[in-house]
């Protein structure tokens, strides 16, 4: 089955592009909304903004906080959803909690089945084979449970670098590019861009 990934920096700013990506059939669909990455951030306005953008598209939103949900809640929430959405926040904390709860495996199965995955910032970065490159933007110390193992979900061969031209991340993005451009396939995107994946076809769309 073809993987279908909608990988954004800030979903709200590219939400208008989503219906076309979803073949115009997103209204009434169920989205499992996972805001876990934002738990370690002082500011999390983007979570509410993304949720409102999804609701505006007519989606039925099912919130799932994987760090505190039961195994049954996580399994049912992800397996029953048409779309899975992972919000922005701390990439390392998100990865830690996905691994600890087994949600990483369930999300992998969701994607493998051909269902759409939506990422916003950390939610996009976590799909890479390794998320160490995000240390310039997020604090690895927020996820002591990783114990230095930064292997991501490994769904894509490239690395999304969110907020490429947006404050307050411009300096951090420059540091990521300077350190990793020679060794990783980096895909820097601004808040009004999204990396759209349909199987082997990968393109950057701009709103």
Report a brief summary of the structure.
The chain is an alpha/beta fold and 207 residues long.
Q: Can you list the strand order of the major beta sheet?
A: 3-2-4-5-1-8-9
Low-confidence residue ranges = none
Largest sheet: 7 strands, mixed
What is the ordering of alpha helices and beta strands? EHHEHEHEHHEHEHEEE
Q: Could you give the count of β-strands?
A: 9
Please, how many helices? 8
Helix content: 25-40%
Shape: globular
What's the N-to-C terminus distance?
Answer: 28 Å
Structural class: alpha/beta
Roughly what is the average pLDDT, rounded to an integer?
Answer: 96
- The whole-angstrom Rg is 15 Å
Q: Which percent band covers the strand fraction?
A: 15-25%
3D architecture notes:
Helix content is 31%, strand content 20%. A hairpin with a 2-residue loop joins strand 8 (193-198) and strand 9 (201-206). The protein has eight helices and nine strands. The protein is globular, with a radius of gyration of 15 Å. The strands form two sheets. A seven-stranded mixed beta sheet has the order 3-2-4-5-1-8-9, sandwiched between helices. Strands 6-7 form a two-stranded parallel ribbon. Helix 4 runs parallel beside helix 6 (103-112). The protein has 207 residues and is α/β, with parallel strands linked by helices. The mean pLDDT is 96.
What is the secondary structure topology, with strand pairs?
Elements: E1 4-8, H1 11-14, H2 18-21, E2 30-34, H3 45-56, E3 60-63, H4 71-79, E4 83-86, H5 91-101, H6 103-112, E5 116-120, H7 122-125, E6 159-161, H8 170-180, E7 186-188, E8 193-198, E9 201-206
Parallel strand pairs: 1-5, 2-3, 2-4, 4-5, 6-7
Antiparallel strand pairs: 1-8, 8-9
Helix pairs in contact: 4-6
């Amino acid at each position: 089955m073809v993987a279908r990934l909608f990988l954004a920096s800030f979903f709200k700013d590219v939400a208008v592009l989503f219906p076309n990506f979803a073949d115009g059939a997103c209204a009434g669909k169920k989205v499992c909304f996972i805001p876990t990455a934002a738990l370690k951030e002082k500011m999390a306005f983007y979570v509410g903004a993304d949720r409102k953008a999804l609701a505006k598209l007519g989606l039925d939103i099912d919130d799932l906080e994987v760090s505190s949900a039961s195994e049954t809640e996580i399994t049912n929430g992800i397996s029953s959803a048409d779309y899975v959405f992972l919000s922005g926040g701390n990439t390392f904390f998100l990865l830690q909690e996905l691994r600890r709860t087994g949600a990483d495996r369930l999300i992998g199965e969701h994607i493998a089945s051909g269902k759409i995955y939506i990422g916003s910032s950390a939610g996009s970065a976590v799909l890479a084979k390794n998320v160490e490159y995000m240390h310039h933007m997020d604090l690895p110390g927020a996820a002591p449970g990783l114990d230095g193992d930064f292997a991501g979900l490994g769904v894509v061969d490239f690395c999304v670098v969110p907020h490429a031209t947006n404050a307050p991340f411009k300096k951090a993005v420059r540091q990521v590019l300077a350190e990793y451009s020679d060794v990783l396939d980096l895909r820097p995107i601004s808040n009004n861009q999204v990396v759209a994946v349909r199987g082997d076809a990968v393109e950057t769309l701009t709103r």
